[in-house]
Specification:
With 203 residues, this protein is α/β, with parallel strands linked by helices. It contains eight helices and five strands, in the order βαβααβααβααβα. The two termini are 15 Å apart. The protein binds adenosine-5'-triphosphate and magnesium ion.
């Protein structure tokens, strides 16, 4: 049996990642392509425990500490959920992945990009991302959709400058060809159609 595809959806807070990941997974399953939905950080018990540590405002990890915590959660999630699903021939739809690490710890916090790329590559080996999509919604529009930042979330306490650097980082990854940009400014049905069109090209 051939391995399933690994599809990642990225974007800033409130861009519609979680909603679009769910819509895409349902559409794939409805069309006879077995697909599973998962998310980062988290998606498996140890990884979800690490997610709680990462989002808890009680802690103040620096960018290197964050990188290793995200990477530890990522490896556990891959081992427990993603690799078995792909080996079973299923397509995996993942809400955030290595591009978020580059965007937040790299472009956002200023950690060396090549260092992050190296850690990312070693963390996910031998996995390759089949398709990385970036839902293009600005941080301001994303927070407006969410009704403002969730201040119980450590990361959402950051200022708009930080999220604008993260957004610009994602745009750079699109320009570099690492991510495919998806217009996310319209209704969710339109965004879903844009995503399905990109996914059909690789299935
Ligand atoms: N195309 C859209 N137009 C308007 N509002 C939208 C659209 N897509 C999603 N929303 C709304 O925006 C909010 C954020 O959506 P969602 O939770 O899917 O985003 P997210 O990128 O997963 O956010 P988070 O970073 O919080 O996980 C929700 O209230 C959702 O209903
Ligand atoms: Mg979400």
């Amino acid at each position: 049996m051939s391995n399933g595809k690994f599809i990642v959806i990225e974007g800033v807070e409130g861009a519609g990642k979680s909603r679009q990941c769910a819509i895409l997974t349902d559409a794939l399953n409805a069309s006879g392509c077995a697909a599973v939905l998962t998310r980062e950080p988290g998606g498996a018990p140890l990884a979800e425990a690490v997610r709680k540590l990462l989002l808890d405002p009680a802690y103040t990890p620096d960018a290197v500490t964050e990188l290793y915590l995200y990477s530890a959660a990522r490896r556990d999630h891959l081992n427990k959920i993603v690799f078995p699903a792909l080996e079973a021939g299923k397509t995996v739809v993942c809400d955030r992945f290595i591009y978020s690490t580059l965007a937040y710890q790299g472009y956002g916090r200023g950690l060396n990009l090549d260092f992050i790329r190296e850690v990312n590559a070693r963390t996910i080996a031998p996995l390759k991302v089949d398709l990385g999509l970036f839902i293009d919604v600005s941080p301001e529009a994303g927070f407006a959709r969410k009704g403002g930042a969730d201040k119980t979330d450590r990361l959402e306490r950051e200022n708009l400058d930080f999220f604008n650097r993260v957004y610009d980082g994602f745009k750079t990854m699109c320009a570099d060809g690492d991510l495919v940009p998806i217009d996310g400014s319209g209704e969710k049905e339109q965004t879903a159609a844009n995503i399905l069109q990109a996914v059909r090209r690789i299935l």
